[in-house]
User: Fold this.
Amino acid sequence: MDETTKKIITTISVVHPKPTQIPTGQSCTIFYDCFQLSPSDLARLAAEAVGDVDHDTFDIVVGLAYSGILFAAAVAGGKKVAILQKDGQLFGPSMRGLRVIVADDVVHSGGRLREAASKVGAGGGRVVGFACIVDRSGGKFVNGMPSEDNGELVPLWSAFQTDME
Assistant:
């Protein structure tokens, strides 16, 4: 990770003096507030996360509501974007026959990504990768995450990796 990316991650890092509960229900002293990111920061982090991924290997990016939507647009790089809404419904074009990257801002256990992969598979799409800004799984998905549609390991790309402290 280069100095510019480090600076962006530092900017979104909210440090608490004692463990504080975050939206996932876990407690930690550092929270990553990705809503602070500008479009250029999102583009930089998308390039850091998926910059080596061939643009021809996917057709669409599904962003997880709410905070993964803007990152999904940056990852898509001009390709189609769909949204997995909070109610669990996919909003956007049909997934049938499409190769999909699922994007979120921060990954902890991978549960939300798995839910999205299941919805994509049920809609006829195939997840070819997962992308996030911050991977807090502590290396849990270093070899990839199991895809819901066929169980194969699918890569998780991220701009920054850290443990839940």
Q: What stands out?
A: The chain is about 25% helix and 35% strand. The domain at 37-161 is CATH 3.40.50.2020 (Rossmann fold). The longest strand covers residues 126-135. The radius of gyration is 15 Å.
